[in-house]
Amino acid sequence: MAITYNNLYMDVRKKLRTAGVEGATLEARELVCFAAGKDRNSLSRDGRLYVSGEVEEKTWALVQRRLDGEPVAYLIGEWEFYGMPLDISESVLIPRVDTEVLAEQAITWLQGRENCRVLDLCAGSGCVGLAVAKYVPSARVVLGELSEGALRICRQNVRRNSLSARVMPYQVDARQKPAAQLGEFDCIVSNPPYIPRGDIAGLDRSVREYEPMMALDGGEDGLDFYRDISAMWHDALRPAGRLYFEVGIGQADAVLRLMRSAGFGDIQVVEDTAGIPRVVFGTRCDEI
Q: pLDDT digit string (tens) for 147-173?
C-alpha cells in the first residue's frame, strides 16, 4: 500500500518513541531524509507525495539498525553542532548539545579580539574549534587530535565549512608536552575523555559499543587528561590566556582544584541548560 512521506515519518517517529528513543522526532526526520536523499525543507515540501518502495525499505532498514543500538549520526554520517553541518564517523564522538556550552563560553570571550590563536585539544570531529572559527572571524584555530581517523574527519569538516584559510588540523598527543612548533595560544578549549574506566561498562549501548573508546576513557577516576593538560599545556598559553574544559557530571570541583594547582587563576564553573556544572575555565597565571 502506498504511503506518503508525512505518514512514513510519523510511523517511524511512533516506532522510535515506543522503543524509548529520546529525541525520536529529530531522529525520525533525519532517517527519512537520509533514506530519501532529501534535506529537511524538501521533506516538508514533499510531505504529501508518495514514497517509493525502495525508499520505504531503506528507511525501515535504518530504523532497525537504530533500534539495535547504532546511533543515528553514524547511520547518516553527519550531525549538526552550533548551526554547522559536520561529517561524522565512528572515529569520533557524536557532538552533543552539552558541548555547545563549551563553544559558547570560548566564543563569547574571544569575540572582539584581534589575531587570536586557539587550540581545540582532543578535537574529535573538530566541532568546538570550527564553531570558534566560524563565529570569531579573527581567530586562527588548530584542531589538535591524536587519532588518524579523527583527523580525517577534521579535515573533511574544515573543507565542508569553508574554513581552510584559518583552521589547521594537526596531530597532537594531549598527554604530552606540546611541541615548540605549535607556538603559543590565546585560548585552549578541550572536551577530553572523562568517563571513569569502571563506568564504561554501564554506559548506554549506543555509546559503549559504537563510540570510540579512546575518546571516552579518562582513566581510573576520569581525570587523567585534566591532570596532564593543566600541567603540561599551561605554558602553551600566552600570559592571561584561558583554558576551557568540558567536564563530566560531578567532576567540576576536582578539575577546578587541578587547574589551580597547575597555576591557573580566576577559575570559574559554568552550568549547562540542565543546571549541571559543565564547563570549567581559568586564566594562565605565572605564579603558582
A: 999 999 999 999 999 999 999 999 999
* 199 found inside a domain: yes
3-state helix, strand, coil in the chain (%, to 5): 45, 20, 35
Q: What CA–CA distances, in Å, run from 106 to 4, 54, 192, 224, 234?
A: 44, 45, 16, 23, 17
How many domains does one find in the chain? 2
Any idea which residue has 536523499 for its cell? 37
> Exposure of 53 by Cβ count < 10 A (0-12 exposed, 13-18 middle, 19+ buried)?
exposed
Q: State the residue range of the domain holding 51.
A: 5-68
Structure confidence by residue, pLDDT tens digits, 179-232: 989 999 999 999 999 999 999 999 988 899 999 999 999 999 999 999 999 999
Domain C-terminal end among 68, 95, 114:
68
